[in-house]
Amino acid sequence: xxxxxxxxxxxxxxxxxxxxxxxxxxxxxxxxxxxxxxxxxxxxxxxxxxxxxxxxxxxxxxxxxxxxxxxxxxxxxxxxxxxxxxxxxxxxxxxxxxxxxxxxxxxxxxxxxxxxxxxxxxxxxxxxxxxxxxxxxxxxxxxxxxxxxxxxxxxxxxxxxxxxxxxxxxxxxxxxxxxxxxxxxxxxxxxxxxxxxxxxxxxxxxxxxxxxxxxxxxxxxxxxxxxxxxxxxxxxxxxxxxxxxxxxxxxxxxxxxxxxxxxxxxxxxxxxxxxxxxxxxxxxxxxxxxxxxxxxxxxxxxxxxxxxxxxxxxxxxxxxxxxxxxxxxxxxx
Length: 333
Ligand code: CO
Ligand code: ZN
Prior knowledge:
Blueprint: H1 2-9, H2 19-29, E1 35-38, E2 44-48, E3 59-65, E4 70-76, E5 81-87, H3 92-95, E6 99-102, E7 107-112, E8 127-130, E9 146-149, E10 154-156, E11 159-162, H4 165-180, E12 187-193, H5 201-210, E13 214-221, E14 241-246, E15 249-250, H6 253-265, E16 271-274, H7 281-286, E17 293-300, E18 309-312, H8 313-328
Parallel strand pairs: 3-12, 3-13, 13-17, 14-16
Antiparallel strand pairs: 1-2, 2-12, 4-5, 4-9, 5-8, 6-7, 6-9, 7-8, 10-11, 11-18, 14-15, 14-17
Helix pairs in contact: 1-4, 4-8
The structure holds cobalt (II) ion and zinc ion (ZN).
């Protein structure tokens, strides 16, 4: 799982340009899938049909997003300096001093206009990317080009650090769950979605076509376990989180109960999640068509939307186990 995570996080997939990530996933899931298709928005839809008959068999959509936050070039000045806008939730405090890699392979460093307050991160429109150009015509990127943080994967014991663990960590968990499910009473759709970071767009359209009875997003969630962090219950290494609420959605109580009962039955650690900022694909699934029972299995993650996001390996393994347990047995509702 670690080497796949390294490969996935060292691949670039800014929102709207997830092709390279999708190619890797496609190869991994093919031997385990009954059907594989790519929809018009670019989401990869992998179906695993029911293998055992059961009364409470459901059509279940699982979603992990392939895209990552990044930037888009908005202007190149006469000296070849590149101005940019965010493509997803890019924060100034994490962008200062970063390196950006564009889809054409060009890399650049982020610089900034003179600082008004030395200890404050400037707004993104006071920053630029220096790609080594000296004028507009020798600048190797143009308006409309997409880029993302450049950063390599590393391991610090059980703590794994990389860019785009939001949501390649979820992608890996979903792939490993698909591989480990021996039999299922359910009609399962493993969906690797696009454009989550710009407003859960790919999950909404995929859910419309699948028309699931239950939807679960697998994504990262913030923690409250660092110095002076927000007062939140989630911690790294304490198990997968069962989402109860985030600002974008209220999980269906039946789904929450199902996830918690299953974790207790198979003796896996889990945490109850109330997230104070952000949302996931589950929001889009829940409000598609006439509404869907939805919830989320979240992976605790520090420094979300930085180039060095951090997760715990045990949490990843336990997330795979919980998902496998959930999908292998009939539901009680
Ligand atoms: Co995100
Ligand atoms: Zn995410």
